[in-house]
Amino acid sequence: MSMNFTRINDGHVCKCLRNCVENYEDLFLRRIDNKNKLHIRDFRTHHERNKTSEGGCDNLCGNRGLSIEIFNEESLAATINQIQVTRQFNPQSSRKHVAIFRLREGAGIVKHTPNQIVYNKNHYDLFKSDEFSLDFEPWTSLFLLKMFEIDEKYKQEKESDIFTIADNYQVFHFDEFPILFSGTNIYGNRILGSLISEDEDGYLFHYMHFLVTDKEYVLFTKGVSTYRDLLLKKQLIYIVEKTINGELNQNFIIDVNLIPAEYLPLEKSFCPNVQSVLGLNYSFSLQGKLADVYSAIPKVAASITTSIESIFLNLLKPLNIPSIDPKLLLTVPSEGSFKINFRITVDRKGQLPLFFGNQDESIQEYVQNFIEYLLNDFTSETELLLEREANLNKVDFEDLGIDKESKYSKKITSKLANVYQSIGLPYSKSAEQKTMSSILKSVDHLDKIGEEIGKGFIQIEVLGHDNNDKDISIGLINADFAEEIVEQIQYIEEYGKVVEIDDEYQQYNLQIYDLNTDTRKGTAHIKNKYVDDIWDKPKIKIIGDSNLIKSTFTESLHLNKFITVSAKAKSVNGKFTYMDILFER
To answer: Which of 64, 78, 340, 520 has the fewest CB atoms within 10 Å, counting from its CB?
Structure first.
């Protein structure tokens, strides 16, 4: 049967119909709107909705083709999962159901979708003929809902540069259109946003934007906080109405409480796992204070750089195996606010195996997961790791139990096992010993970094880089994180040992040799409580909020002077490890 394609071919010279075939046997599926009745709008292309095409024939032909999929168990499961993820962030998404159909003869021709961003063997483009009509039955579909109305008094005459994404745009979930995304405004503040709804005809789209702190952003992207949790903590939300081509139609700044409950994201609206395997380049971005003008105190920058270097060298120790020769390089510092950059190179040793290369994905995954584990998971699994280390030499390695659902098992041992497997070696007890040692030693270096917080910066954002050299946030080292690390180090030091803690403040004679007057933390020299010729080096914290400048504490620091203080001390096996010191005038 001959078919006409004037709507496809009009106004261009692209060969959109090349390699297309007629297919009247296979079942196809497409997400649709109304479960009671199939509408012609369910099969309307982007071109028919007046979306413009940019970027050549691939985009033009994609705009004039209709996305469909071969119906099978795999495509149906993937489609249902897509619907479920979308609804977490956009409960009013209209396309909640699926039509399963065969094309009638003469309805159009199909071809496997070319140049897909993410390859999908089930995805096809349908090029409708001029005679296309709805001559098939839907399987199921959904009811349409209109966008809730907003009082005109909230309307903005121009875009708010506080809530408008100007840079670093990243899509976390895409479902024909961006559903969940992030970016930064012109001031560098982070913004999260999502699609709320589209009008019945699909010409106008409504989005909401709101500001998040760096910490909130990291907790969301790492699956700790939900999108709903973050949204409900905010006061003001920016509502944006755009055309299908992204042109601003109107916008509003409203109180979050004005959003109807049915339009709020769902309870389990965790960030989809969209982070790809990162390369072997990492940046540590100092932020706040001097760092915001691209500067750092030399001594502080040197101390942080040395500690970061030690962490990387620790994580590379388990990779010191035949055929792999990893090296760490410090690369040129960059702005933003003040970045310290590292690159890992991995060379082959000898002739084996030939398939192994510098950018082997298993090593990239291991490095990425090691850093993520230290920054986001370690503090919740300290006891588990210490128990595992204590039992490492007591039982056969194969019998050594560990929670298979632990982050340590998923992010560390499994990723290292993949590296060893890639070169034909088993992950052994000796490798595990190196791994445990690497983690626990790295925590000490994180503690040293934490001691520098406040000295010209307030936090460090750790960034990896994807294949497009785009910054991907991995975690934050800030005052709260530093406190958690101190607590875990104390727990490690005390594990299986005798711990003594003063009930009341007592008099101690000591000399302070390191003190951060912003965080009020430091280190002191004090004689061991049992042996006179042994000196302990407990960490200290000065309780109170009085200014420490020109106090007895800074006098002790600068003049190497011993002072008598009132303090509650902690000792482990007779060694002073920590002291809370009372500020006394």
So the answer is: 78
Q: How many residues does the chain have?
A: 585
Q: What's the CA angle centered on 219, arms 216 and 222, to 5 degrees?
A: 145
Other beta carbons less than 10 A from residue 287's beta carbon: 19
- CA dist 275 and 221 (Å) reads 9
Rounded to whole angstroms, how far apart are CA atoms 257 and 276? 35
Largest Cα–Cα separation, the chain? 102
Q: What's the rounded Cα separation, in Å, for the pair 399 and 574?
A: 36
10-residue mean pLDDT series, the chain (585 residues): 84 88 85 68 84 80 88 77 78 71 84 67 89 58 42 77 86 86 86 84 83 84 86 88 85 83 85 71 89 88 93 88 80 76 77 46 88 91 83 59 71 86 79 87 93 91 81 87 90 86 93 89 91 90 88 91 93 91 84
- Cβ atoms of 42 and 48 within 8 Å: the answer is no
Parallel/antiparallel/unpaired status of strands 248-255 and 324-335: unpaired
Nearest in space to 225 (alpha carbons), one of 268, 263, 265 = 268
- pTM above threshold 0.85: no
